[in-house]
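hiii so my PI (J.) wants the whole complex modelled not just the main chain, which honestly fair. so below is everything: two entries, each one labled with what it is. i double checked the lines twice but i was tired so who knows lol
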Amino acid sequence: NAGVMQNPRHLVRRRGQEARLRCSPMKGHSHVYWYRQLPEEGLKFMVYLQKENIIDESGMPKERFSAEFPKEGPSILRIQQVVRGDSAAYFCASSPTFGQGNQPQHFGDGTRLSIL
Amino acid sequence: DQQVKQNSPSLSVQEGRISILNCDYTNSMFDYFLWYKKYPAEGPTFLISISSIKDKNEDGRFTVFLNKSAKHLSLHIVPSQPGDSAVYFCAANGGATNKLIFGTGTLLAVQP
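here's the output for the full assembly
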């Protein structure tokens, strides 16, 4: 399967715990995007990364959220001290190049995060 | 600030007929528009896109029309099939980082 791989598919955490969401982009893709979908809403951009660099984090909450895309391994979205409002579906997308609108982003199937 | 709007939360169409999904936007600087289809518990799947310098793009049963003066685009599916039943998201791509701005989606139900 050469698609975007996200894991886990479902993650349950208690308030105050940490959540780590992983994303492996499609083979040959070096650009990774994270989006969040709250219930009954569209997807909202959070962060855009290339290998070892955060390019645009304008959609990321300033506190508790961080993202990385190391030289080796998957991209990680980390949420510290989770709260009920963090319950959502988190989608990762990848694309092969930057800056061309006709290079569609390909999405993974998401991680559904539930906070108890 | 909702830059991309899909005002119809749902649409029901008979199999074989045309489905028309609509999308409005506010930012004239967007340079590409895309449509994604999403089934429950899956990620969005890319369908078709259109550059802001075009007014029409066609791919099989799917055609996207862009009216820049009205800041409006539409997705036509002809003929509609039951397997087309899904949520359709309109998205705009613009700015330096290629991030997508999504509408809230339209749930299409194609009745057999």
